[in-house]
Every structure is written in C-alpha cells, then in structure tokens.
Write the structure tokens for this entry.
Amino acid sequence: MAQDLEEAQKVRAAINGALATIEYILARGDQTYFKLPEAQRMEELAPALVAMIIEQSRTRAAQSVSGRMGVLNYNVVTLTDLQDEIKRWADGVFPDRTAHGALCKLMLEEIPEFALDTKSEDEYADLVILILDIATLNGINVAAAVERKMEKNRRRTWEVNIRTGIMHHTNEENESE
C-alpha cells in the first residue's frame, strides 16, 4: 500500500510538471513554441505526454479495480497530499505560526466547537486541518505514522469498558509479535 501511495505521488508530481510545461508553452504563445526546432519541442512535450499516458493507464486500472468493488472514485487524495496542501495554505496565511499555537487553537477552540456539533463536516475538517498542520510543524509524516501505528494496533487485543464506553487495548505482550 505504501508503494502504491508513493507511485501515486510520483504520478501526481509528473502530471503537475506536465501541466506546468503545457501552461508554459501556452503562455509563450503557439507561434513561439512552433518556431522552436522539432527536437526542442519534443523535449518540452515529452514529460507532458508521458505523464498523460501514465495517468490514463492508472485511471483505467483504478476504474477496473474499483469497478469490481462497486465503487468508482476519480478524486483520490492521499493523506500526504492533504498534509502538503494544508502546509502550503498555512505557510501563506500564518507564516510565523508555531505547533504550540496551533495546538492551543485545537484544544481551546476547535475541540469544544466539535463537541457541540459532532455531525458538522466543517468541525471535522477544522480538527483534521489543525492536526495535520501541527504534525507538519513537528516534522511528522502523518500517513507513515498512521500506517506504523495501525500495524501496532492490529497486534493488540482490544475491549470496550462497559461503564464508560471507552475503547482501550488490554495487553502489550502481543506488540512484539
């Protein structure tokens, strides 16, 4: 799964590069582009064409797999992509923010708001945005951390406290397996 996510990120980067190349070519105007020698034109277009071919084949493969599962999802966003997007936005809006300041906002403002309306999509989004930003500020790749933690959780035994309804693991010994 991690390898698939890495490949998806590489494809996304290639596509973004290809789009930037195409935008660059269009911004210069077709006349300038077509006055270039054919070899140079191909050199500029090759990454775009390769990226488009890769994306089309991946899309067809994803449609085939998800079609068998009964779900078709054209807009897959990885957790790492989301974390990167939040970082870009937050760096632009709050360039001097700190992990401590973001954590205080999370605990003092957003969690209480969420507690009052646990069905609000915006409140879920606020929590996720802040958690991912805090992780970024602390140098943590959340996708990788979640994968490692889920492996650990799968090795544990779990139960729910019947008095409180709180879930917790009941052992540590299975973690070394």
Remarks:
- The chain has a mean pLDDT of 76.
- Strands lie at 158-160, 167-169.
- DSSP finds seven helices and two strands in the chain.
- The chain has two domains: 2-69, 79-169.
